[in-house]
Amino acid sequence: MDWKKEYSEGLQFASTAKGMQNKEKVDNETLYNIIALAIEKFTSSLASKLNYIPMNSSLVFIFRELSGKINIPAHFIDEASFMNRFMIYCSLDIVPVKAISKADVLRMIAFMDEVASYTEKQEGAFRVATGA
Q1: 69 with 52: CB under 8 angstroms?
Q2: Domain of 89?
Q3: SS3 at position 13
Q4: Is the Cβ–Cβ distance between 61 and 80 less than 8 Å?
Q5: Ordered per-residue pLDDT tens for the chain, 132 residues
Q6: Nearest to 78 by CA among 60, 61, 66, 101
Q7: How many domains does the chain have?
């Protein structure tokens, strides 16, 4: 997996999410999914850079696993847990759908931006350390 490509795709998803949110052309559930894709791409970039494949696909587990390899901000796990509250598609339990509010989307976008910034700093440190 090419960490540079994953990072670039994360930036594209993040840009798309922000553009759609600003234009208010899609519902909050669609925005949630695009934001989640951006964050997944950023975490994939970090994992790929470390030559590591996470054992679980949930954002919480990915951040927990990565935190054993690099210094992940502790609140990333809390924010990933917040986002996981809206993910019911892979659940075997029948649970009511939790509506995603505008405030929820703003919180998710702030988290996405924070993960993007963190990933960028890590990528920069990697380039300096390896000359890549």
Answers
A1: yes
A2: 3-125
A3: helix
A4: no
A5: 677 898 999 999 999 999 999 998 899 999 999 999 999 999 989 888 888 787 777 888 889 888 888 899 989 999 998 998 887 665 555 556 678 999 999 999 999 999 999 998 887 655 544 455
A6: 60
A7: 1
- Locus of tokens 């924010």: 79
CATH number, residue 18: 1.20.120.330
Q: Is residue 84 part of a domain?
A: yes
Please report whether residue 25 resides in a domain.
Answer: yes
* Any domain includes 131: no
User: Could you tell me if residue 71 is inside a domain?
Assistant: yes
The one-letter amino acid at 59: L
DSSP codes joined into one string, 43-73: HHHHHHHTT---S--SHHHHHHHHHTTS---
The DSSP secondary structure of 98-123, one letter per residue, reads PPPPHHHHHHHHHHHHHHHHHHHHHH
Which residue do the tokens 């990333």 mark?
76
Q: How many residues does the chain have?
A: 132
Residue 8, amino acid = S
